[in-house]
Design a protein that fits this description.
The chain is an alpha/beta fold. Helices cover 45% and strands 13% of the residues.
């Protein structure tokens, strides 16, 4: 069942529970007891529908925030502006379940060490956001062609603006599922647990021997990584390294030597 449909059903279930509780006389007088029952009911329904864990918190806060905002008497135009802003930033996140995650410079430095050094490599950042990975990486490895693809308009435009003076960065707006991955030495993904199985399928079908798939924070379920790197940053970021098509032929070696996965 699509996540959006699960969310709708959970909210409807919460409304029905609140309505039933109000008609039975079990609730004290006032609006907020009704709102609280609806929120708890929606969160419980999300758990029953096996929605992702973060949906519980969304359901707990959705109706209380709506009611609170209505009581503040905010002009409707502000709601429209907020909706447009969120749509430009998150775009299709409701469908893909991939939020906007930003990589830090320490992660970029770790990825730079994974790139081949005996020839100019090519890297693809899936969902490149504001270019937070590509900009420091392009400075560290000026010989690398750093490519990114992003669907959301606002992060894409910001990334173009911030990287306009870095000639080894190439950016595109679109769907990375429709882009061939065969020509890349390293594909980087900082997505969410939801699409990783499909990422693995596409990587095994398209990446050539020796190419590396790097997943920031989210391992591929059921697949043992070739190596795991812990980045020395505040959140102790983990990079999961996979070679979907196996090692490179002997005539095309790289400087990277993986250590056993933890």
């Amino acid at each position: 069942m699509p996540p959006a449909l699960k969310a709708l059903l959970a909210q409807l279930a919460g409304c029905l529970l609140a309505l039933g509780a109000a008609r039975s006389g079990l609730l004290p007088a006032g609006l907020w007891p009704l709102v609280a029952v609806q929120a708890v009911g929606a969160a419980g329904a999300a758990i029953a529908l096996r929605s992702a864990p973060w949906w519980r918190w969304i359901h707990l806060g959705f109706i209380p925030l709506v009611v609170g905002a209505l009581q503040l008497g905010i002009a409707p135009g502000w709601y429209l502006a907020a909706f447009v802003a969120f749509a430009l930033v998150y775009w299709s996140s409701f469908r893909t379940q991939v939020p906007l995650f930003l990589s830090n410079p320490q992660t970029a430095a770790a990825v730079a060490e994974l790139l081949p050094r005996d020839y100019p490599p090519r890297l693809l950042d899936l969902g490149s956001g504001t270019g937070a990975l590509l900009r420091p990486l392009a400075r560290l490895r000026p010989d690398c062609r750093c490519e990114g693809i992003e669907a959301a308009p606002a992060p894409y435009l910001l990334s173009c603006l911030l990287s306009r003076r870095q000639p080894n960065i190439a950016l595109a707006r679109g769907d990375f599922w429709k882009l061939p991955w065969a020509d890349y030495d390293l594909v980087y993904a900082f997505l969410s647990p939801v699409p990783m199985a499909e990422v693995w399928r596409k990587a095994t079908e398209e990446l050539r021997p020796g190419s590396l798939l790097v997943s920031n924070s989210f391992p591929i379920e059921g697949v043992t990584p070739d190596a795991v790197i812990e980045v020395p940053d505040r959140r102790r970021t983990r990079l999961y390294l996979y070679r979907p098509a196996g090692p490179a032929p002997k005539l095309r070696t790289t400087a990277w030597a993986p250590r056993p996965a933890a």
